[in-house]
Specification:
CATH topology of one domain: Trypsin Inhibitor V, Chain A
Order of helices and strands: HEHEEEEEHEEEEEHEEEEHHH
Shape: rod-shaped
Strand order of the largest sheet: 2-5-3
Oligomer: single chain
Helix content: 25-40%
Structural class: alpha/beta
Distance between the termini: 234 Å
Length: 329
Amino acid sequence: MNWWKKGLIIFVSVIALIFIMNSVIMPWYVKHNTLVKVPSVVGLSYNDALKLLEEGGLEGLQGDIRYDAAKPIGTILDQNPPAEQMVKDGRRIYLIVSGGEQLYDVPNLVGRTVRESKFILAQRNIELQETSYKSSVQFPPGLVIEQIEQPGAKVKKGTKIGVVVSTGMESGNLKVPDLTGKNLEEAKKILLQNKFAIGKINFQPSSSVPLNSVIDQYPKANSMAKENDKVDLFVNRIVVPKVPVEDEMNSIEEVPDEEKDEIDKPKDSDKDKKEIPKKEELKKEKKDDVTKDKKDSQKKDDKTKPTEKKKTDKPKDTDKDKKDDGTKF
């Protein structure tokens, strides 16, 4: 009997509790906390979904972004809580938004080999397209020196990235080495090793580098030149001036004073120029007269000389005779 009484009491208590919850507590709770049904916003744009939720007394918030090439960017792909569920008024509904087709960041490929570039792009679902080849002084052959899509750009899956690959230095596109401060012989070796020809070597004094070292060069260092181009060198060396030989100095004819005077004289007018020939003719005539007079005087002297000799000879003979006729003692 006691067992039946206890069981009956428990059963009646449960029924009474259910009745109280359904008739008193739930109506009071619903009255103070209104429940609303969550509408379906999947397939709507993000802005339209926010408006619909706001009209139903709910708050929409953006959740994760999921890439879907079939859905435009901003389309609602999913929601939480799901549609048709009863929730409190003002509940937050998290929305999964479509990011459209996924875009990938383009990496920096400059300075990498073609093989490395292909591997890096494959990790981002991008393909490598070798567009062209170009000579380069900075990059060895096989390295990427340029790329069509700049690093950081957004591209779609499977996009082909065009690059320019270095073929190295070509003939006629050589970099001139820096020879400043190098010994002359060392500079010559460096030029030959770099496929340049030795140009003109100029010597001049300088205190900036040791003797027999390169002061400057042309073409300048790091400039571009062709193969076998000549490179002129300017080398530090004391230049001794050449002293002229005395014989050569003595052999130099000095200008006569008369000619100097004639040179220093100002140019005469046209009238004076016309009179100059006349003066010269007069001078010549005077000279001729003087020479004639000299010749005549010489002839007269020649005629008088024999007579004088005869006159002078006679006294000499008389003196001899006198000596011969003298008496001997």
